[in-house]
């Protein structure tokens, strides 16, 4: 059996068209959502992500500003910029691209972003609201993955979903969103001793471990839905996910290629969060 290869262009195009139409409806009322992306330093991968975010905003009709700051920017200067953007009415979303240079305390920066402009859903108040089921922004990568499953009409309730990875950006919030959809959720991580035994039970396997091609066919139950949230640069210069695609495609029921699905869907959720923030700010 060969897996159904999930088509990122089709799903992303569909959701972005919906967002674009809502942005146009707001424009008719004289409202334009606005996103600021802040990039500190010259990490090559981050620079690519930031460029993609700005381009995607433009295509959706969302106003965007990118602040590219030198690596030696002080924490005080970054905090001052965020304070200014928190007070800026034309800005609905503030995203500080991570990782930050070592001399800057990431938690301190995230804490300083206005809760109602935290479109990444990284602020402890938004994370807490998510945990207790109160309304909050939805974290972009996990929300995008749920959107993919729903778009394909793949059932989540009652299924065993296994998440490999426990990061604050993907693994932990992913588990929370799956739980909200009534899946039975297991989180595995680098210290899990019987990984294959657990992942082989997964109806839905979500991988966000940050190690190229780590998940092989032996980890996967035949017919499972495999979602790869990893992106790694190989020595050859090529990009690869955390799943060994060529191996796993032979046994999975559904699989996402890398790049092309989870990455663009993450940006799509960022656009949606910015749109929702603008709607709320003007309601
Ligand atoms: N670095 C890697 N992923 C992300 C993300 O989703 N948001 C931000 N701000 N930084 C990141």
UniProtKB/TrEMBL annotation:
Chain coiled-coil ranges: none
GO terms for biological process, alphabetical: L-histidine biosynthetic process; methionine biosynthetic process; purine nucleotide biosynthetic process; tetrahydrofolate interconversion
Keyword Nucleotide-binding: no
Binding positions (NADP(+)): 165-167, 231
Domain Tetrahydrofolate dehydrogenase/cyclohydrolase catalytic span(s) in chain numbering: 6-120
Keyword match Phosphoprotein: no
Metabolic or biological pathway: One-carbon metabolism; tetrahydrofolate interconversion
Any GO MF annotation of the entry: methylenetetrahydrofolate dehydrogenase (NADP+) activity
Keyword annotations of the record: Amino-acid biosynthesis, Histidine biosynthesis, Hydrolase, Methionine biosynthesis, Multifunctional enzyme, NADP, One-carbon metabolism, Oxidoreductase, Purine biosynthesis
UniProt cross-references to InterPro entries, sorted A to Z: Aminoacid_DH-like_N_sf (IPR046346), NAD(P)-bd_dom_sf (IPR036291), THF_DH/CycHdrlase (IPR000672), THF_DH/CycHdrlase_cat_dom (IPR020630), THF_DH/CycHdrlase_CS (IPR020867), THF_DH/CycHdrlase_NAD-bd_dom (IPR020631)
Reactions accelerated catalytically: (6R)-5,10-methylene-5,6,7,8-tetrahydrofolate + NADP(+) = (6R)-5,10-methenyltetrahydrofolate + NADPH; (6R)-5,10-methenyltetrahydrofolate + H2O = (6R)-10-formyltetrahydrofolate + H(+)
EC identifiers of the protein: 1.5.1.5, 3.5.4.9
Positions of the Tetrahydrofolate dehydrogenase/cyclohydrolase NAD(P)-binding domain: 139-281
Gene Ontology CC terms: cytosol
Pfam families assigned to the protein according to its UniProt record, in alphabetical order: THF_DHG_CYH, THF_DHG_CYH_C
Function: Catalyzes the oxidation of 5,10-methylenetetrahydrofolate to 5,10-methenyltetrahydrofolate and then the hydrolysis of 5,10-methenyltetrahydrofolate to 10-formyltetrahydrofolate.
Subunit structure: Homodimer.
PANTHER family the UniProt entry points to: C-1-TETRAHYDROFOLATE SYNTHASE, CYTOPLASMIC, C-1-TETRAHYDROFOLATE SYNTHASE, CYTOPLASMIC-RELATED
Similarity-based family: Belongs to the tetrahydrofolate dehydrogenase/cyclohydrolase family.
Protein's UniProt name: Bifunctional protein FolD
Species name: Paenibacillus psychroresistens
């Amino acid at each position: 059996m060969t897996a159904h290869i999930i088509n990122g262009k089709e799903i992303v195009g569909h959701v972005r068209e919906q967002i674009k139409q809502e942005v146009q409806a707001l424009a008719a009322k004289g409202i334009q959502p606005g996103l600021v992306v802040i990039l500190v330093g010259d990490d090559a991968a981050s620079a690519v992500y930031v460029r993609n975010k700005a381009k995607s905003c433009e295509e959706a009709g969302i106003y965007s500003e990118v602040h590219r700051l030198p690596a030696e920017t002080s924490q005080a200067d970054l905090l001052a910029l965020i304070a200014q953007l928190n007070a800026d009415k034309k800005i609905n979303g503030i995203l500080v691209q991570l990782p930050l240079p070592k001399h800057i305390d990431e938690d301190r920066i995230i804490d300083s972003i206005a809760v109602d402009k935290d479109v990444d859903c990284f602020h402890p108040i938004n994370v807490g609201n998510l945990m207790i089921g109160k309304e909050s922004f939805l974290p972009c990568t996990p929300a995008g993955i749920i959107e993919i499953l729903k778009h394909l009409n793949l059932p989540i309730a009652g299924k065993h979903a296994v998440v490999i990875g426990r990061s604050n950006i993907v693994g932990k919030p992913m588990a929370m969103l799956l739980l909200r959809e009534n899946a039975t959720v297991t989180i595995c991580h680098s210290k899990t001793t019987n990984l294959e035994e657990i992942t082989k039970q997964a109806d839905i396997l979500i991988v966000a471990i940050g190690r190229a091609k780590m998940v092989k066919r032996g980890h996967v139950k035949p017919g499972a839905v495999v979602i790869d949230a990893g992106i790694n640069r190989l020595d050859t210069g090529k990009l690869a996910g955390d799943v060994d695609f060529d191996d796993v495609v032979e046994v999975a029921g559904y699989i996402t290629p890398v790049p092309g699905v989870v990455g663009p869907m993450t940006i799509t959720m960022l656009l949606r969060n910015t749109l929702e923030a603008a709607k709320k700010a003007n309601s």
